[in-house]
Amino acid sequence: MKRSRFTEEQIIGILREQEAGSKTADVCRKHGVSSATFYKWKAAYGGMDVSQARKLKVLEDENARLKRLLADALLDNAVLKEVASKNW
Description:
88 residues, Homeodomain-like_sf, transposase activity, Transposase_8_domain
């Protein structure tokens, strides 16, 4: 997945700038993002504080790590079942 050139703190700052009264088009042009990206950010980070965004990032990383561990365990389990089913 492509890394964003903006951090969560910057994204929340951009969203707050628009909430303060600036027009969406002006904010997008100022920061060099498309309106589609802006609204995607708004759906993901709208109403969040910086601390909440950091917690979300930590939880997402932990979730990804746990999914990898589960996938490895399921693969090991499948291999062991296949070996056990063969007649020696």
